[in-house]
Amino acid sequence: MLAALVTPTAGRWCAERYQTLREQGASKAGAATLTLLWLLAWTLFPLERHGWQWILSHAKGLYPQVAKPRAGDPLRILLQSLWLIVRRPEPIPLRWPASWQRAWQRGTQGLSTLLLRQEEKGLASALATPREARWKSVLLCVVAGSLSLLCITQPFTLQAQLVFVIMLVVMAFILRAVPGRYPMLMMMVLSLTVSCRYIWWRYTSTLDWFDPVSLTCGLLLLFAETYAWVVLLLGYWQTAWPLNRPPAPLPADPAEWPTVDLMIPTYNEDLAIVKGTVYAAMGLDWPKDKLTIWLLDDGGRESFREFAEGVGIRYVARETHEHAKAGNINNALKQASGELVAIFDCDHLPTRSFLQMTVGWFFRDPKLGVVQTPHHFFSADPFEHNLQRFRKMPNEGALFYGLVQDGNDMWDASFFCGSCAVIKRSALDEIGGIAVETVTEDAHTSLRLHRLGYTSAYIRIPLAAGLATESLSAHIGQRIRWARGMVQILRLDNPLFGKGLNFGQRLCYFNAMLHFLSGIPRIIFLTAPLAFLILHAYIIYAPAAAIALYMLPHIFHSALTNSRLQGKVRHSFWGEVYETVLAWYIARPTTVALFAPHKGKFNVTAKGGMTEEVYLDLSVSRPYLVLILLSLCGLGFGVWRILTGPADEILTLILSMIWTLYNLTILGGALAVAFESRQVRSNPRVEMVMQAAIKLANGHLYPCTVRDYSNGGVGVLLESPLPLVGKERVWLLLRSGQREQEFAAKVQRVFGRKLGLELEPMAQQQSIDFIQCTFARADTWSLWQQRLGKDRPLHSLLDITLLGWGAYWRLARSSPLEPICILLEKLARWLLSFVPRRVSPDFRSQAPTPQTVEG
């Protein structure tokens, strides 16, 4: 009846379903309830149809008789009912009557007006009587906190906990489907409620105080869970409302623009890498008399001096090399005199609009000390390269530069990251230059600026791009340096104490430093289930049902909320792989830095290398292999104890083995990263859509689109095929602003309308022009992150599962088990040969001819 009031189509459909259920033996109440469930499923959960279809298809396989249920079998009737829902291609069209729609619009408009008036009234009251408004806010917070504490600490029976969990799960799914910031904040509240309740339960009800082994293992796991809970809490608070600051305009008169010293520190990098950064810096849209480019060579190489003199930039070298990069910059600051200092790593190429997009904020905020922009990379890092995920998913740093720094900016706590930033010279002089006490001089410098009252800004627009680390070992070395340096700051200049910082800045800095202490907790999580499987230690002293009802909702809500919060910059479960790869290697240096902060040295990250062949980096993967063997032993002990142990421990054993299997999946993903893939390009290709033209030897011009480019070649797409042959000489015409540049090239490959061009050796001015036409374009990097898909947690979990267990297969293929693996592969192919394959009717007509494939 309800559906018939909404729309006749829905009414007829529900009547048919009701009659079908009655014919199958369902009672009137049962048929009506299931029909209502149909209607609610379509209206409340239309976006989850494919996920439910996948689940129900497997559930249907468990119940072969579901297509023809016996009379009075409610489980099978329910499964068939849900199956009929997901099989429909489109949801039921629910159309409200026009009078209802007008009433709804008037009601929502009236409610919005009322809320706006109340907000204005409350704001006026707060401005008129700030003390009274403050007391009202404090009273409201006390009441809300008391109710939250009651909800967190109230003991429930298992049945009550189940009902409570189901209610919150339903609310989370509904909120996840509603766009906007406030539903996401409500999801954070639900997640924190469940997580705090779990932590309270762990501290008050789950420790075995009478068994020393169980108590020790339980306290270690509780320490790791407490660390994860604190990080979760601070992460929600830090990123609840990211700022996303836009660029600020500059004065109309360029004569009022400040002078800028642009510094490029180098140590042992190749000159070919440094040239691109210098060429891009020379093309910045800034008055030439107000821009000075400095090449800071801590290697003292004559070739760098000659290059700097040849292109007309300043060269600085020093005889001593104390304090590494920070000392190199401080030495150059003694000779520079600009009002602002821009710093770029030697592999980061700035776009021509970099200064115009960043300097405007120094005019708007006189107390501004530093403006930071993202570190963007046009080459694949080891995770993207070895796992073949480049440009298919966000990279490891996307979470920090795409969300965390914006969240920091909301609390005036965004910090200098060592490159792609502009710093006020007077502020640097006031703190004594770049900080040299720790190996992460960038964050420490920002902390000192904030302590003196200077503000910071973050502009989330990629205005420069550089090279990522090529090998996993180099990547780990870089992260070890970052981890050691942040823990050094935590010890030597703790942001929680001291003067000059507000509450938000203290928590943001503390969270950044706490993040790098994840090594030991991650190792504990990877080994915790083994304590019960091998040592029979009760790490969580509670029944299996209670563990499931408290732990699983905590994991589910945090994963679902983070998927909503971080979905554009970090896909679900991939953070587990990143942390697992680094856990073993950052655990020791961070622990040492906590007790001996002055130990350790600065190491330079190597970039620009090549990998000639595929190999497993055993020096890096050895800890993972040890953890994998321990996990396999734990699974063996679990099977043995299920067969021979007491029956009341079977559920706990099953939960521990599921946890171990998940750990094995994550460890397999870490092992997959250690399989170094071939890297034979010294010049990474950059994908880009840019209009250009091809000029032939006869002078004819043909429009084309540049699809990718590098320092050595260009891939273009013609509007129509041209009669070109290999090694034919052509000229590529590119535009930089109002100027058109011409570059000689040879045709390397022709594939229909696609051309691969190899650029001929260029003179110095041509190289400068090419960099400024490609890498230094203002719009080169702005759309990269927008191409990435949204996070889908189930797909991410499936992806990591296939990746992790595929790594084990690759490992077996490279071991003495290779003959067995080959035999199993042949057996699988033989079995698959009996499976009929479906071919679309037009497949044969669309198949390319052999000539096309060969061409």
From TrEMBL:
CDD domains xref list: CESA_CelA_like
Top-tier EC class: transferase
Biochemical pathway: Glycan metabolism; bacterial cellulose biosynthesis
Reaction(s) the record says it catalyses: [(1->4)-beta-D-glucosyl](n) + UDP-alpha-D-glucose = [(1->4)-beta-D-glucosyl](n+1) + UDP + H(+)
Cofactor needs: Mg(2+)
Annotated compartments: Cell inner membrane
InterPro entries: Cell_synth_A, Glyco_trans_2-like, Glycosyltr_2/OpgH_subfam, Nucleotide-diphossugar_trans, PilZ_domain
EC nos: 2.4.1.12
CC terms in the record's Gene Ontology section: plasma membrane
Record flagged with keyword Cell membrane: yes
Pfam families assigned to the protein according to its UniProt record, in alphabetical order: Glycos_transf_2, PilZ
A GO molecular-function descriptor: cellulose synthase (UDP-forming) activity
Keyword Cell membrane: yes
Domain PilZ: 679-775
Residues in Glycosyltransferase 2-like domain copies: 263-432
Family statement: Belongs to the glycosyltransferase 2 family.
Function: Catalytic subunit of cellulose synthase. It polymerizes uridine 5'-diphosphate glucose to cellulose.
Official protein name in the record: Cellulose synthase catalytic subunit [UDP-forming]
Taxonomy of the source species: Bacteria, Pseudomonadati, Pseudomonadota, Gammaproteobacteria, Aeromonadales
Gene that encodes the chain: bcsA
